[in-house]
Design goal:
Elements lengths: L13 E7 L1 H18 L4 E2 L1 H4 L6 H10 L1 E8 L7 H16 L5 E2 L2 E3 L3 H4 L4 H14 L1 H15 L4 E3 L5
């Protein structure tokens, strides 16, 4: 990342990276949030806006995560049932921890409670147990750790979105 003369130690390709489970939130809260941020002149990464047909999703996505300043994971009912979103979240958490305060996570709990993300309820815990069968304990423990790192951040609870 390049130095900036504007007083910020880093310059980022994206100011905000949205992490969300498409079928749960894409046409609702995610679309609304993206539009509001974009209308305000904020450079936002949203996978369906930035990925081009034929691009490798994993490489492009990881690069976008690395080149973002603020991460907004939108935790929804099915977010933890996807290994893809949990890998994305792990990368987000790793980037935030090594950034020495230059990156931050601002979670939104959409139709879920922070207790779900903290694995204090069966919702996310059961999803991770099912993934354990496919990916193994070591990988699932890494995802559990990423979820617990995000949960220490105060987020917003959104129970309904009516647009």
């Amino acid at each position: 990342m390049a130095s900036s003369d504007a007083g910020t130690p880093y310059e980022f390709e994206y100011q905000v990276f949205l992490s969300y489970r498409g079928p749960d939130t894409r046409t609702g809260i995610t679309d609304y949030l993206y539009t509001c941020l974009d209308d305000a002149g904020i450079r936002v990464y949203r996978d369906d806006e930035e990925l081009r047909m034929g691009e490798r999703i994993d490489g492009s996505l990881l690069q976008a995560i690395d080149n973002s300043r603020i991460y907004i994971p939108i935790f929804s009912r099915n977010y933890a049932s996807s290994s893809w979103y949990l890998r994305e979240l792990s990368q987000i958490v790793a980037n935030t921890l090594k950034s020495e305060g230059n990156k931050e996570i601002l979670p939104i709990f959409y139709g879920v409670a922070p207790d779900d993300v903290e694995l204090k309820t069966p919702l996310y815990d059961d999803a991770l147990q099912k993934l354990n069968e496919r990916f193994g304990k070591e990988q699932v423990d890494a995802w559990r750790k990423a979820l617990s790192e995000v949960d220490v951040t105060k987020g917003w609870e959104a129970h309904d979105y009516t647009g």
